[in-house]
């Protein structure tokens, strides 16, 4: 059940698939107490993370657990609580499926006519933003980094070409070279951490440092369910289970030989974060997380 | 009939205000400070609330939003008008929520918490009618007006904490807020002020005259000398036209250069700006060129003026990294905190009128 859900729909972000799975699990769960329910859910989340160790699944899982705790505080009776949880869970899923469009609506006004945009690897949110801007009859060109080791940038370039947006694929190493031509940088995020920084495909940090050196605005687009309770101070602080794919973690003994798949970009390099909760400065992110978790 | 008279009187006033706005921008009308602009807008909005015909909060908000749109379209560079409209809209929302009995906190901002705990997709359409809503809204607007009246004094009261004896302060052009700020500090401390004249309108000269009248030692310098003099300066205190949502500024032309010079010398840059200048806009690359003609600035080139394009942008953008502190009527804040102040002043749905 778990793994099939996760791999089902390529359009659905992994956090949403995780939450949907957890909701299904909730409906079928037989436990008698809230504590039992929480334990079962924690186990399920751990199994989901084993299947797909991205930050998004982890944040989705934690959000769901938080959601359970908040609801169980209001309704001490288990069966009634479960009914309310399932209702709210469905509603939550409905709302977050709209979040990508909300982000796109906020962000596309920042793309001016004639702009040259640089983006990194493949992000569905960035794609939606560029789609909205193109639908708004704006003319712009896009540079996409190839993003090795999985060449995700090329897929992004194909999708953009289908939208009739002029796009060029550049080498990851050519970011410094291309930066002077570019007007703004837009990237997605796999996770937004408490400090206001982001966790994203490897190469994002480099891109951010370059854009800071050239004084180009660096925008991040992310849905709000990607906010995660981590506070890394440097690259080493990011937990290993996020850095490598789940299969690698299981198969390989010595992780020092492996190449990490993600990196951490500190908030000082980010200009603005566009979420479905509005346009946030990196310092506003921790405020949002506090409102939720405390 | 008295009803119709009131209506025509109201529309007349609105038209007069719009015409004034349009004139005010082209430099031929009386040059007004943004404080007066904010106050006039609020008076007009109070009059609309009192005299226009509306039965529910939703209607009133629609009327105010429409008028607000026309006012901002008349003079886009005058952001205080839009800010006041948004404040009043927030006041209406709050009063409505209070009349309904629900707590104000839950209705307001979007947050992850709300996403998780909301019962149903809340469709707030403000259709309920409350008898006392009009009176409550007008009372709240009166409170807003009192706040507006006191802003310059509130800012000036904080002067003594920031200015110490024998300091050299630099300022740019003319700002009524900074003038009051410095004059208040001058009552108890002795310090020097260097004023950059801010070509081509050289408002710095008026500022210098005003300051020296109360006995402050003032020096006027040309804009080009700002970097050269900056090493002797302890603090830079300036005003601004607008404070943007990301903590940046839209200020008079030349401010960005001052900010960069201050950053180079690690001199603190302090902005004195009242809360009504805080606008939910974020930096866009469109700036409003002054629509007047500049032949009087360049008398020598009169013959070749037909072949030359003269651009004179009025405003500059200063990014938040260059700013040390904002002093407003509610106290001192860091630029990274501006987003929080904004969420308290305006409702996110009103950001775009």
TrEMBL record, chain A:
Any Pfam family hit: IF-2B
Q: Which GO terms describe its cellular component?
A: cytosol; eukaryotic translation initiation factor 2B complex
Give the UniProt subcellular location, in the record's own words. Answer: Cytoplasm, Cytosol
Q: Which domain of life is it from?
A: Eukaryota
Residue ranges the record marks as coiled coil: none
Signal peptide interval: none
Task: Name the Gene Ontology molecular function terms of this record.
Answer: guanyl-nucleotide exchange factor activity; translation initiation factor activity
| Keywords attached to this entry | Cytoplasm, Initiation factor, Protein biosynthesis
Summarize the protein's role.
Answer: Acts as a component of the translation initiation factor 2B (eIF2B) complex, which catalyzes the exchange of GDP for GTP on eukaryotic initiation factor 2 (eIF2) gamma subunit. Its guanine nucleotide exchange factor activity is repressed when bound to eIF2 complex phosphorylated on the alpha subunit, thereby limiting the amount of methionyl-initiator methionine tRNA available to the ribosome and consequently global translation is repressed.
Protein family per UniProt: Belongs to the eIF-2B alpha/beta/delta subunits family.
Assembly and interactions? Component of the translation initiation factor 2B (eIF2B) complex which is a heterodecamer of two sets of five different subunits: alpha, beta, gamma, delta and epsilon. Subunits alpha, beta and delta comprise a regulatory subcomplex and subunits epsilon and gamma comprise a catalytic subcomplex. Within the complex, the hexameric regulatory complex resides at the center, with the two heterodimeric catalytic subcomplexes bound on opposite sides.
Protein's name in the database: Translation initiation factor eIF2B subunit alpha
Q: Which organism is it from?
A: Oncorhynchus mykiss (Rainbow trout)
TrEMBL record, chain B:
- State the compartments where it is located: Cytoplasm, Cytosol
Where it mainly occurs, coarsely classed, is: cytoplasm
Q: Which residues form the signal peptide?
A: none
Q: Which GO terms describe its biological process?
A: animal organ development; central nervous system development
The UniProt keyword set, sorted, is: Cytoplasm, Initiation factor, Protein biosynthesis
Highest taxon in the source lineage: Eukaryota
Matching entries from InterPro entries are given as: eIF2B_beta_subunit, IF-2B-related, IF_2B-like_C, NagB/RpiA_transferase-like
Assembly mode: Component of the translation initiation factor 2B (eIF2B) complex which is a heterodecamer of two sets of five different subunits: alpha, beta, gamma, delta and epsilon. Subunits alpha, beta and delta comprise a regulatory subcomplex and subunits epsilon and gamma comprise a catalytic subcomplex. Within the complex, the hexameric regulatory complex resides at the center, with the two heterodimeric catalytic subcomplexes bound on opposite sides.
Q: Which family, according to the similarity comment?
A: Belongs to the eIF-2B alpha/beta/delta subunits family.
Question: Its function?
Answer: Acts as a component of the translation initiation factor 2B (eIF2B) complex, which catalyzes the exchange of GDP for GTP on eukaryotic initiation factor 2 (eIF2) gamma subunit. Its guanine nucleotide exchange factor activity is repressed when bound to eIF2 complex phosphorylated on the alpha subunit, thereby limiting the amount of methionyl-initiator methionine tRNA available to the ribosome and consequently global translation is repressed.
The identity of this protein, by name, is Translation initiation factor eIF2B subunit beta
Species annotation? Oncorhynchus mykiss (Rainbow trout)
Gene responsible for this protein: LOC110522643
């Amino acid at each position: 059940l778990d793994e099939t859900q996760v791999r089902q729909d390529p359009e659905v972000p992994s956090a949403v698939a995780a939450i949907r799975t957890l909701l299904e699990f909730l409906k079928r769960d037989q436990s008698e107490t809230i504590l039992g329910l929480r334990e079962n859910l924690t186990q399920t989340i751990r199994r989901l993370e084993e299947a797909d160790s991205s930050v998004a699944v982890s944040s989705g899982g934690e959000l769901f657990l938080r959601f359970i705790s908040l609801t169980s505080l209001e309704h001490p009776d288990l069966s009634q609580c479960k009914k309310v949880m399932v209702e709210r869970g469905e509603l939550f899923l409905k709302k977050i499926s709209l979040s990508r469009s909300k982000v796109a609506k906020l962000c596309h006004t920042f793309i001016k006519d004639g702009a040259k945009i640089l983006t990194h690897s493949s992000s569905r949110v960035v794609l939606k933003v560029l789609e909205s801007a193109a639908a708004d009859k704006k003319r712009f060109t896009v540079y996409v980094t190839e993003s090795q080791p999985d060449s995700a940038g090329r897929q992004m370039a194909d999708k953009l070409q289908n939208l009739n947006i002029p796009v060029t694929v550049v080498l990851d190493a050519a970011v410094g070279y291309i930066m002077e031509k570019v007007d703004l940088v837009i990237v997605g995020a796999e996770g937004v951490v408490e400090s206001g920084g982001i966790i994203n495909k490897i190469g994002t940090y480099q891109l951010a440092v370059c854009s800071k050196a050239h004084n180009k605005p660096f925008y991040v687009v992310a849905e709000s369910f990607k906010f995660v309770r981590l506070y890394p101070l440097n690259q080493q602080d990011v937990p290993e289970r996020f850095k490598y794919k789940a299969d690698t973690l299981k198969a390989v003994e010595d992780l020092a030989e492996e190449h990490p798949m993600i990196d951490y970009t500190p908030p000082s390099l980010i200009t603005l974060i566009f979420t479905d909760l509005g346009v946030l400065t990196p310092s506003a992110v921790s405020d949002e997380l506090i409102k939720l978790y405390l | 009939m008295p009803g119709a008279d009131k209506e025509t009187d109201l529309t007349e006033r609105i038209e007069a205000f719009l015409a004034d706005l349009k004139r005010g921008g082209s430099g031929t009308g009386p040059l007004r400070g943004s404080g007066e602009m904010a106050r006039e807008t609020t008076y007009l909005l109070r009059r609309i609330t009192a005299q226009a015909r509306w039965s529910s909060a939703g209607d009133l908000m629609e009327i105010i939003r429409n008028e607000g749109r026309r006012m901002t379209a008349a003079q886009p560079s005058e952001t205080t008008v839009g800010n006041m409209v948004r404040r009043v809209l927030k006041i209406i929302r709050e009063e409505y929520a209070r009349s309904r009995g629900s707590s104000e906190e839950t209705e307001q901002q979007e947050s992850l918490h709300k996403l998780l705990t909301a019962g149903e997709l809340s469709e707030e359409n403000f259709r309920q009618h409350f008898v006392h809503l009009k009176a409550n809204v007008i009372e709240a607007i009166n409170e807003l007006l009192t706040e507006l009246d006191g802003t310059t004094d509130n800012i000036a009261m904080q002067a003594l904490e920031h200015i110490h004896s024998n300091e050299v302060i630099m300022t740019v052009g003319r700002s009524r807020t900074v003038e009051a700020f410095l004059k208040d500090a001058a009552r108890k401390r002795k310090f020097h002020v260097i004023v950059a004249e801010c070509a081509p309108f050289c408002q710095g000269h008026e500022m210098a005259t005003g300051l020296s009248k109360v006995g402050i030692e003032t020096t006027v310098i040309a804009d080009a000398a700002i970097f050269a003099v900056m090493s002797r300066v302890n603090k830079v205190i300036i005003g601004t036209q607008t404070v943007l949502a990301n903590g940046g500024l839209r200020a008079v032309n030349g401010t960005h250069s001052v900010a960069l010079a201050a950053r180079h010398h690690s001199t603190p840059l302090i902005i004195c700006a009242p809360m009504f200048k805080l606008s939910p806009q974020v930096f866009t690359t469109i700036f409003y060129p002054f629509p007047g003609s500049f032949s009087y600035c360049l008398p020598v080139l009169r013959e070749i003026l037909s072949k030359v394009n003269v651009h004179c942008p009025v405003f500059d953008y200063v990014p938040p990294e260059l700013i040390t502190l904002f002093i407003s009527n509610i106290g001192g804040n860091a630029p990274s905190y501006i987003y929080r102040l904004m969420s308290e002043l305006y409702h996110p749905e009103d950001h775009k009128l």
